[in-house]
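Protocol step 6 of 9: fold each sequence in the batch and record its C-alpha cells directly after the sequence line. For illustration, a two-sequence batch is reproduced in full.

Sequence one:
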Amino acid sequence: MKENNRRKVCLLGAGLVAGPVIEYLLGFDHIELEIADIEPERARRLTGGHSGASVYQLDLQDREKLTELIARSEVVISLVPYTYHPYVAEICLEAGKHLVTASYVSPAMRALDEKAREKGLIFLNELGLDPGIDHMEAMRLIDEIHQAGGKVVSFVSYCGGLPAPEARDNPFGYKFSWSPRGVLLAGRNDARYLLDGQEVYVPAEQLFSHYRMIEIPGLGVFEGYPNRNSVAYVDIYGVKEVKTMLRGTLRYPGWCLRMKKIGELGLLEVDEKEWQAETYADFMREYLGIPAPADLKTEIARRLQITIDSEVMSTFEWLGLFSERPLPSRKTSPLDLLLHLMVEKMQYREGERDMTVLKHEIVAEYPGKPGEIITSTLIDFGQPGGSTSMSRTVGLPVAIGVKLILEGRIPERGVLTPTVPEIYRPILTELKSLGLSFKEERKTA
C-alpha cells in the first residue's frame, strides 16, 4: 500500500495496557502508529522494531509537541492518566481529530459533547474492561430482553482483575495489574445502588463492610462489594423498570476485612504532611498518637478490636508497617506510604498469570410467559511471559474501537460510550474471535 494511503494513529501512553493495542493495530499494513511516552524506551520495547511504528519522547505538559503529534494523526488513543483526557480532548477538538479512551466519561469530558458533534468528531470513552466490555455485554443482553417484549427486573454485575488461583500467594489475595494508586483510591469512594426498588447509600468508611459472597463456577467463592454509583446505570442502560441495579468489584475472600481495618487506621488518607518519623514503626506511632513505651502492636490491635495474633495483624506485619524500614519520603501521605509497601510486596513475578472475571446476572420478566435468570460470565487468564489478561481486556476493545472509527462504522458523533449496537456488536464479535468470550446460562426465574 502506498504511503499516502496509510492511516495515522497516535497513541499517548505506553504503560501497562498498551501492549495489546500496539500489537493489534500494527497487524494492519495500512495503519501507521505514532507512540508517545515520557519513557520512550518502554514504547520501543512494545513495538519490537516494527516498521509501522514511530516512537517519541513526550511530556504531556509540552502542549506544543503534543499538538503537533495530534495534528498529524487521524485518531488519537489516550492511555495516559484519566485526569489528562479532557486536556487531550481539547487539543483533539482544535485539530479536528477523533479520540478513544478506556476511562469513565468525566464531567469535563461530557461537557465537550456538543462541540465534538458540531465538528463531526467521535470521542469514544469507556472502552476497556470495566468500564467497557461490561457495558457491551450488559447492553447486548438488555437489548435482547427488550426486543422480546421483556422487562429487566434485576441487574447485578461484578468484575475483578485478580491473580490466577496459583498466583494467589499473599495475605490480600491481590496483585497489581493496573494503577496501584487507583486501586487504593477506589477504597475511598462512596457507593450507591438499588435494591428491590430502594436506593442504598454506602459511605466510604463502610464500603468494605458491605460485601456479599459471590460464586463463580470453576473458581469458587469471592467477595463482591458495590462500585461507585450504580443508580446512574438505570438511565445509561435504559432500564427504567429495574428494581435492583448493582455494579460491584470482585476480590478473593479476606480482602474486605484487611482493607476495612486499613481504612479504620486512616491509612487511605491522601493529605500530605511532613513527618518527624524516619521508619514505618515510628510513622505508625506518630500518625496514630501512640507514645513509647506503649507496645505498638498491642495498641493497634486494641483500637481495631482484633486480637494481636489475628490475620489482620499478621498482614500488617507482613507489609512492614511495624518495621524499622526507612520511609521513602518524609513529606507524603499515609496512602502513599502504604502504597510503597504494597507495590513492592504485591507485584506479579516472572511467569505468573493474572485473571479477569466478569459476571452479569439479570432477572427478566416477560408478558404471558415465565421469567428467566440470565448469567453471563467472562473468565480470562494472562499469558505467562506474554500479555496480562488486564492488558488484553482493556487494550483490545480500545484497538478495535479505533479500527471501527477508521472504517467509518460508527455513525454517531460526540462523546460516546459503547452502549449502542453499532459499537458493542462488532467489538464483542471480534473479541470472541480473539479468545475473549462470555459463557451464558439461562434458567426459569
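Sequence two, same batch, same settings:
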Amino acid sequence: MWAADFATVRTVETGSWITRPRQGHGYGTEARAAVLELAFAHLGAVEAHTSYVDGNTASQRVSRKLGYVGNGRRANAEDGTRVIEHRMLLDAVTWANHRMPGITVDGASECLELFGLRADEPHS
C-alpha cells in the first residue's frame, strides 16, 4: 500500500504479488484484505485504487472479490511491448459491504505519522 498526500486526499494504492506456487490458496486475498482493513478502518481512507494487466485474471478476481470495480484502462510499454493496464477503484462504503471477517490490524497507531496523520485526530 502506498499513498501521496494521504492526510488530504485519503486515497491509497494497493498491489500485491504472490509467487505462482502460492497462488490459489487465498494468500493474495487475505493480504489485500488486511491492507484494506488498515486503510479504511484505521487510517480513514475514502478510496483505494489498484490495477492489473491484461491476462492477469487471478489479480482481477481478487480485486473484484474484495469489491473493486472497473475504473478505466491505459496502455503502457513493458520491455518494448504494449501492455493494457486495467484500473480498479474501491470506495469505503463498498469496502464495508465486502469486508472480510477475521481480519485484524495491530500497531496501526505506530504508522500514523507515515501517512501524515496524528494520533489525536479521528481517522475513520
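Proceed to step 7 once all outputs are recorded. Observation for sequence two: The first helix runs from residue 6 to 9.
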